[in-house]
Design brief:
The protein is built from 6 helices and 9 strands; from the N terminus they run αββαβαβαβαββββα. The protein has 169 residues and is of the alpha/beta class. The strands form 3 sheets. It has a 5-stranded mixed β-sheet with strand order 4-3-5-7-6, sandwiched between helices. The radius of gyration is 16 Å and the shape is globular. The relative contact order is 0.16.
Length: 169
């Protein structure tokens, strides 16, 4: 288990009502966050997700999705909002994503349709829309990959860097 998740569990045990995240319109205590991460991780595992993309604005849902993927041992691929549609599609195929979480479902669905990627809307998870990708070839990721971060691709296609749990904490 990651140091971050261990610390979250410890804080939830010792100070469950202390605020862990505060956003513009919501907040989560350590107890609520720990419970939400456990529930979302369970849901992600039940969906049998192998590699999860995250295309959303920064905020509590983004952080919750990140922690939940970590807890579920599912590699997460944060997709920067500044990426062009071509860069997003490159990362989707390069990482072999089989699911995407987003706060922009209409734009993502239009992009997937334009690229002839079959998908299925799965509802909301972590306050974000989960979209299952059905026609993206899965990729064998290096053992222990916890996260894949992509370069901006300013000099060519974005390059993915696989990070292990030890490298991200």
């Amino acid at each position: 288990m990651s140091i971050l998740l261990k610390t979250l569990h410890q804080s939830a045990s010792t100070s469950p009502d202390r605020i862990a995240f505060m956003g513009a319109h919501e907040s989560l205590s350590y107890g609520q966050l720990d419970m939400a991460v456990a529930e979302a991780a369970h849901d992600f595992k039940a969906q049998d997700i192998r590699a999860l993309g995250l295309l959303a604005n920064n905020g509590i849902p983004w952080a919750l999705a990140d922690l939940s993927a970590l807890a579920a041992n599912i590699p997460l691929v944060p997709l920067p909002l500044f990426f062009s549609p071509q860069q997003i599609l490159h990362a989707v195929h390069d990482a072999g994503l089989d699911a995407l979480l987003t706060d922009q479902p209409q734009q993502v669905e239009a992009l997937l349709q334009s690229a002839s990627i079959r998908f299925h809307k799965m509802g909301e998870f972590c306050g974000l829309h989960l979209i299952r990708l059905q026609s993206v070839a899965s990729k064998k990721l290096p053992q222990g990959t916890a996260k894949i971060t992509y370069t901006s691709g300013t000099t060519g296609e974005p390059k993915g860097v696989c990070l292990s749990l030890a490298q991200i904490g």
